[in-house]
Design a protein that fits this description.
By secondary structure, the chain is mostly helical. It has helices at about 1-20, 30-40, 45, 55-60, 65-85, 90-95, 95-110, 115-125, 130-135, 140-165, 170, 190-210, 220, 225-240, 245-260, 265, 270-290, 290-300, 310-315, 335-345, 355-390, 390-405, 420-425, 475-480, and strands spanning about 175, 180-185, 445-450, 460. Helix 2 packs parallel to helix 10 (about 140-165), helix 10 (about 140-165) packs across helix 14 (about 225-240) and helix 22 packs across helix 23 (about 420-425).
Length: about 500
């Protein structure tokens, strides 16, 4: 009990140090934080030890009523928050039309799925992801809010996982078929622990490498000891998780942040993005010519079958689905198909461990094309965002790049999944704070720029940082973007002599 009390006191101290900073973020962020905590660790039924035991495909399709009620409550809370903020939904739909079309196509698959009621339940639950993303993005400083949610998520997941592994092995560890231990922390399996460490690592890397030098009082600068403890614990747990996918994703994110610190890259987002696409294309060419992938697997200590993933891909490829439309949104893993896979490979498998293959199985080639278009559209938005606000643009780029890499060995384009939520945070466009990169002029020069949702351009102080990030009055600009203010009456001058 003493380690538990120390851990809870430490978590309480972390939140106390964070909340007393008065950074202007609203209490509404507790809703997406609760959503991401449950998505990243265990559902409510598992925390209360009331979770169902899925011994058949039918029981898996039914799910837990307690979990459904918990997530539905969070969705309702998110809808209420957005309704009170009076978001301009027509603007949102116009500027996020690909995401809207994707979700509508997912819902339309109710016409050809095997179980329309199960699909409808899963679609409603999945709708919580864009709702939580919009709760974050409609804050006065949206990407500072996103970083704050990741920080508070790390406050919960990292200490609790270390506690479970060290002092409650029955909860924080599992065992593979060969008897070797598998460290899970507060998750269900090792990849869950790896994802927790990845999310914590993204936040730490972002504040240390991107916003550290912009003159603003970040949490890391104000609490260096706490940041060091959190970073060391994250590194320790990532090593314990043995999740190579999360490790590779974190390396990619750190490489993006480090590359952006080069002055020529910071000045030219087009060159920066072009270099990233060129590196991705070169990697594909080297893999096709010299087997780069096998060399990388050897360096990571992984077998070429990716822990039997290739066998799984061969099995699911033999099951017939409509190549154009698929089996229906989140419907492939149900009924007779799931039972047949379990009979061949063992119980518990519920995804193809490849996001693009998973899209094909559920939504066919149309679903794959739509998710690729959503990602491409998100990258175009990031290109424009990096010219106005490089720091926030880099964070969005890291979310999208992570999704692209992560889905090569895992499936995260759907469901209650933090990586899916991160992708939506990167691709969704909202009226944002006006920031400008001045190409020339004095450090204090003010340059007019256009802001979505505003009728007139605003002037923003030119950056004094290496990334061109402008310290504009966030509450004034972002609030006016979401809630336009009426024009103030002009004051008349007093006549001379009075």
């Amino acid at each position: 009990m003493i380690p538990l009390m120390i851990c809870l006191l430490f978590i309480g101290y972390l939140f106390w140090t964070d909340l007393r900073r008065r950074d202007g973020l609203s209490n509404a962020l507790w809703v997406p934080l609760a959503w991401m905590f449950l998505a990243g660790s265990r559902y409510v039924s598992s925390w209360l030890n009331l979770g169902p035991t899925f011994t058949s495909a039918v029981e898996y399709s039914e799910g837990s009523p307690l979990d459904a009620a918990a997530f539905f409550s969070l969705i309702v809370a998110g809808v209420v928050i957005l309704a009170r903020r009076k978001v301009d939904w027509s603007w949102m739909v116009r500027n996020n039309i690909l995401i809207v079309v994707y979700f509508l196509f997912c819902l339309s698959s109710i016409a050809w799925t095997d179980d329309s009621f199960v699909l409808l339940k899963r679609w409603i639950k999945d709708l919580g992801n864009p709702i939580m993303a919009l709760v974050i993005l409609t804050e006065s400083r949206p990407y500072e809010a996103a970083a704050a949610v990741l920080r508070r998520l790390a406050f919960l997941l990292i200490p609790l996982s270390a506690l479970f592994i060290r002092y409650f092995p029955g909860l924080g560890r599992d065992y593979r078929g060969d008897g070797s231990p598998m460290y899970t922390g507060v998750g269900h399996q090792k990849n869950d622990l790896g994802s927790m460490c990845f999310l914590s690592g993204v936040y730490l890397a972002y504040e240390f490498l991107v916003v550290r030098g912009n003159g603003r009082p970040t949490f890391i600068r104000q609490n260096k000891v706490i940041a060091a403890i959190l970073a060391l614990t994250t590194a320790y747990l990532l090593r314990m998780s043995d999740s190579k996918t999360s490790l590779v994703c974190l390396v990619v994110v750190c490489a993006i942040f480090l590359l952006a610190r080069i002055s020529v890259m910071a000045r030219s987002p087009d060159l920066f993005l072009g270099l990233l696409f060129g590196a991705a294309g070169l990697s594909w060419l080297l893999d096709q010519s010299f087997g780069l992938k096998d060399t990388l697997f050897a360096l990571l200590g992984r077998d070429p079958s990716l822990t039997n993933r290739t066998e799984l891909w061969a099995v699911v490829g033999q099951l017939a689905v409509d190549p154009l439309l698929g089996a229906g949104f989140m419907s492939f893993w149900s009924g007779a198909r799931m039972q047949e896979i379990w009979n061949q490979l063992g119980e518990g498998i519920n995804q193809a461990h490849n996001g693009y293959l998973e899209q094909y199985l559920n939504l066919g080639y149309i679903g794959v094309a739509l998710i690729v278009m959503v990602i491409a559209g998100g990258l175009l938005k990031v290109r424009h965002h990096m010219k106005a606000d490089p720091a926030s643009g880099l964070l969005r780029l890291s979310f999208i790049a992570t999704a692209i890499v992560y889905n090569t060995t895992e499936a995260s384009f759907y469901g209650i999944n933090n990586l899916w939520l991160l992708l939506l945070l990167g691709c969704l466009e909202v009226p944002r704070k006006a920031t400008a990169r001045a190409a020339s002029g004095s450090p204090g020069e003010r340059r007019p720029i256009s802001v979505p949702g505003l009728h007139k351009p605003r002037s923003v102080p030119r950056s004094r940082t290496g990334y061109g990030h402008a310290a504009a009055p966030a509450s004034e600009i972002a609030e006016s973007a979401l809630h336009p203010r009426p024009a103030e009456p002009k004051l008349r001058r007093r006549p001379p002599g009075l």
